[in-house]
Structures are given as structure tokens and as C-alpha cells.
Design a protein that fits this description.
- This protein has about 150 residues and is an alpha+beta fold.
- The protein contains 4 helices and 6 strands.
- Helix 3 crosses helix 4.
């Protein structure tokens, strides 16, 4: 039986990028899925519980480096947001959406996340990406009460 999920996307800054969103039935299920998606050297997995992880964004890696710059998948896939049932709060969702937005910013604008001083163009670009992803989440998600 497939997990509850949906996709969110943005094309506010650069080409359309999309993110899978999955709601896992338990934290342990989330941890196992995250380990399968990003195995560590030696295969022992990440100590997700020890790190206090209750949700995560797992970005897609870049496929190659050309002239010192990473190249990204042509289909626009940016990664997967993982949440656990009972822990889908506005704070956790906002936190993870910022991680996804930063990754998309790196994919579409510049790999170096320095935004500069004050609210300049780069900060605005990040805000647009974050806003569009957040709006996508709001269409699909029902928040849990902490």
C-alpha cells in the first residue's frame, strides 16, 4: 500500500523544480525509508532518533560537475520531504520547507547560499521559492496539534 503523499513545485525562480512529500505512519518508518534513500558508508544507517529528527528533507544529489558547477536532473526533481503522522506541525513543516527551498535555490540560482546584506535580490528569490512551496503544502496538509 503506497504511503500518503503528494508533490509540490515551484518555478518562481528558474526552471520548475518539484519535491515529493511523504507522510510516514511512524518515526521508525520514516527513519527506515530515509536510510534506504541515502545509505551511509558501511550500511549502518544514521542515528535519526539520536539526532532528534522528526522530519527531514533529502535532496537529490547532482549528477556531474561541469566547469566547476553541479549539473542537476533534467526532470526537475529536487528531493523528498518526509514527515511522520502525529508530528506534522506548522513549525516542522516550515523548517523542512526552508531546507527544500534552499536546495532549489542552489539548483536554480547559485550553489553558494550567501544572500548578501539586507533584503536584496537573492533573499527575495529564496523567499519566492519558500512561499510557493509553502502554498503547495497548505493545499494538501492537515496539521497535527503538538
Amino acid at each position: 500500500m503506497p504511503l500518503p503523499g503528494f508533490t509540490i513545485s515551484t518555478d518562481r525562480v528558474g526552471p520548475r523544480r518539484w519535491v515529493q512529500v511523504r507522510i510516514h505512519p511512524t518515526l521508525e518508518h520514516l527513519y527506515r525509508a530515509a536510510d534506504r534513500a541515502a545509505p551511509t558508508e558501511g550500511g549502518e544507517g544514521v542515528d535519526w532518533a539520536g539526532l532528534g529528527v522528526s522530519a527531514c528533507f533529502q535532496p537529490i544529489g547532482f549528477s556531474d560537475v561541469v566547469d566547476g558547477w553541479p549539473t542537476w536532473p533534467r526532470n526537475g526533481y529536487a528531493g523528498i520531504l518526509r514527515f511522520a503522522e502525529g508530528l506534522v506541525t506548522p513549525e516542522i513543516v516550515a523548517h523542512e520547507v526552508v531546507h527544500a527551498a534552499c536546495w532549489i535555490y542552489r539548483m536554480n540560482v547559485k550553489a553558494d547560499m550567501r544572500l548578501g546584506k539586507g533584503c536584496g535580490t537573492h533573499e527575495e528569490q529564496l523567499a519566492y521559492i519558500t512561499g510557493e512551496l509553502s502554498a503547495g503544502m497548505a493545499k494538501h496538509i492537515r496539521y497535527d496539534t503538538p
